[in-house]
């Protein structure tokens, strides 16, 4: 039903306006506008953002064939991260596929927080709370830090794992240092990031990692997972840290090193902030996208 509505609506809009390029977002919408049946009459770009938006499309053979036809009929395909090649690879034409990282809204830099890297280490995660984000691993890692280390941990976001994570924090004996803040407005989230020292989100599967980028831009030392989206912009040990997936011991090792040497950790956080604010904004993304548009039009 959705596909029929979108296809009809698409035809109506295109007939009323003189467009140069059609830019379709997600594999579901590529199918909805009828790309699997025939090429559209205008140059067409498809952006793929995640591997879990409609997993049945790739896993079911007949639907995967439809998706391959749709992406083949597109003039160009953009992936937000190289990790998506592992998921959509059989459906892609490498010659007409580009990886173009998402950006983030560049907030005004309010200057260094004088309380940062002094006293208790403030850790934060910002995420939808479901298993794939690995927040249970963070709690397990924090429980293994020796009692003398001074830290607090804030979790911003909501989701199906929230009550389970709260129960786990209590079972591990760290509930007195962990605060679940729930969902917050974006401007409040950015203020919380600007006052924290460490952002940690060991997602098992992260196509890109805008939350990681925003944390880096806010000056947090940022911890992500090697081989996932953040590994495309975090250089481990220089602009942040990368840990193996589902590896509690590695998270413990990094947290111990960060807390034990705040001066070195601050320098890594500052290097990450410079990288994020200079290279990964939406302005940079838009300039790259304009280049792709121009190539399709010409």
UniProtKB/TrEMBL annotation:
GO terms for biological process: carbohydrate derivative biosynthetic process. The keyword Membrane does not apply. Residues 123-273 form the Glycosyl transferase family domain. Residues 4-107 form the Glycosyltransferase subfamily 4-like N-terminal domain. The keyword Acetylation does not apply. One of its GO terms (molecular function) is glycosyltransferase activity. This is Glycosyltransferase involved in cell wall biosynthesis. It comes from Nocardioides perillae. The lineage of its organism: Bacteria, Bacillati, Actinomycetota, Actinomycetes, Propionibacteriales.
